[in-house]
């Protein structure tokens, strides 16, 4: 697969993240469920923004973060997502291209502004997200670049796209184009609350169209409605070729058929912000698979990227993941 133009092409919600510290009482006052991701309208987004502590703005979006991580590893990455012709849209476009990711989706010229995710982070590093999708959910099937997908070893789909109908159509078009070209389709479940809203539809999509699934423990439990981790892994392995389930400080488990590979988490001095941990794990894991690495090697690349991002504010790497991997004796 290395003769293709891209290792990973991601399809996702193009979002600018606003991150700020908070205490648990702030979440209660704002009626936000700790650790959740909920969708808000433009007015709710503005009100929450005004109430938040001073923070930082950074281009984000789950799949956007992942391909930025792929590029940081030295991988070849592309992205499909919708921004508006506004200031935040310009910020997102500049940032993702500066990271080394191909991004050519035409911006929205009329309608809602560029999407933004307001992320409140408690002292334990847990993030609670309120997302105004804006232009992001205007991504449509017509925006899917079939040629770009055909030139990508793995097409990575963001589970958050199951919420808006037009974006879900783009999601399905991308998966169809990938399989027509003989490429692998990967999906991240994104959030347990997304799984709860769309469990039946997600299961149907996974069974019909996914080759690779990424999830965390909570998402796995929600998908199969079981707290039995091993049983959940078994059921997931029966549906797809390969899956990786992250478990926080306990590392991750990679499954493929009857194989189970436990991957340890890399130690972190202090967890600052868990935003982007799953996204960066996906970056290393998917790049590893695209480059023909073993399940354990791919999992270790994922764990390394996750350890880097949780040690600082923001959802994207602040150092070269390629250099970091080399320091740890890992090749990509």
Which helices and strands appear, and what pairs or packs with what?
Blueprint: E1 6-11, E2 15-21, H1 24-29, E3 37-39, H2 42-51, E4 56-60, H3 62-72, E5 77-80, H4 87-98, E6 101-103, E7 115-121, E8 127-132, H5 146-150, E9 152-158, H6 165-180, E10 184-188, H7 192-209, E11 212-216, H8 217-224, H9 229-239, E12 242-246, E13 252-256, E14 259-263, H10 277-290, H11 295-309, H12 321-327
Parallel strand pairs: 1-5, 1-9, 2-7, 3-8, 5-6, 9-10, 10-11, 11-12
Antiparallel strand pairs: 2-4, 7-8, 12-13, 13-14
Helix pairs in contact: 3-10, 7-8, 8-9, 10-11
Quickly list its features.
UDP-N-acetylmuramoyl-L-alanine:D-glutamate ligase; five-stranded mixed beta sheet; globular; alpha/beta; nine-stranded mixed beta sheet; 12 helices; 14 strands; 332 residues
Low-confidence blocks of residues: none
Work out the strand percent.
15-25%
**Sheet with most strands: strand arrangement:** 6-5-1-9-10-11-12-13-14
Query: Total domains, how many?
Result: 1
Class of secondary structure makeup:
alpha/beta
Largest sheet: 9 strands, mixed
The rough form would be described as globular
CATH topology: UDP-N-acetylmuramoyl-L-alanine:D-glutamate ligase
Supply the CATH superfamily name.
Ribokinase
Relative helix content: 40-55%
CATH architecture level-2 label: 3-Layer(aba) Sandwich
CATH domain class name: Alpha Beta
Described by its quaternary structure, the protein is single chain
Q: Could you spell the SSE succession in H and E letters?
A: EEHEHEHEHEEEHEHEHEHHEEEHHH
Radius of gyration: 18 Å
Q: What's the helix count?
A: 12
Count of strand segments: 14
Q: How far do the termini sit from each other?
A: 14 Å
Report mean pLDDT, rounded to a whole number: 94
């Amino acid at each position: 697969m290395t003769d293709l133009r891209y290792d990973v092409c991601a399809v996702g919600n193009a979002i600018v993240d606003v991150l700020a510290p908070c205490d648990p009482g702030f979440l209660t006052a704002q009626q936000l469920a700790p650790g959740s991701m909920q969708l808000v309208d433009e007015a709710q987004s503005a009100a929450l923004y005004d109430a938040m502590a001073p923070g930082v703005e950074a281009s984000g979006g789950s799949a956007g973060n992942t391909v930025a991580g792929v590029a940081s590893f030295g991988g070849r990455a592309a992205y499909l997502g919708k921004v508006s012709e506004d200031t935040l849209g310009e910020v997102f476009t500049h940032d993702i291209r500066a990271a080394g990711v191909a991004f050519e989706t035409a911006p929205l010229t009329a309608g809602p502004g560029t999407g933004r995710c307001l992320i409140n982070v408690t002292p334990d590093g847990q993030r609670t997200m309120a997302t105004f999708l804006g232009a992001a959910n205007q991504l449509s099937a017509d925006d899917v670049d079939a040629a770009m997908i055909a030139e990508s070893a793995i097409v990575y789909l963001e589970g958050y796209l199951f919420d808006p109908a037009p974006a879900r159509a783009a999601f399905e078009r991308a998966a169809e184009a990938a399989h027509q070209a003989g490429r692998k389709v990967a999906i991240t479940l994104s959030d347990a609350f997304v799984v709860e809203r769309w469990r039946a539809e997600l299961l149907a999509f996974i069974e019909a169209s996914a080759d690779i699934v990424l999830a965390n423990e909570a998402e796995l439990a929600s998908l199969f409605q079981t707290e039995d981790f091993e049983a959940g892994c078994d059921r997931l392995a029966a549906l797809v070729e390969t899956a990786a389930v992250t478990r926080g400080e306990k590392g991750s488990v990679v499954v493929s058929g009857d194989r189970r590979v436990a991957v340890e988490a890399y130690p972190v001095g202090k967890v600052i912000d868990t935003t982007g941990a799953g996204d960066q794990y996906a970056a290393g894991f998917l790049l590893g698979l695209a480059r023909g690495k073993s399940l354990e090697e791919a999992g270790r690349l994922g764990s390394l990227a996750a350890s880097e991002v949780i040690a600082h504010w923001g959802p994207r790497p602040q150092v070269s993941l390629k250099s970091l991997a080399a320091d740890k004796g890992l090749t990509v």
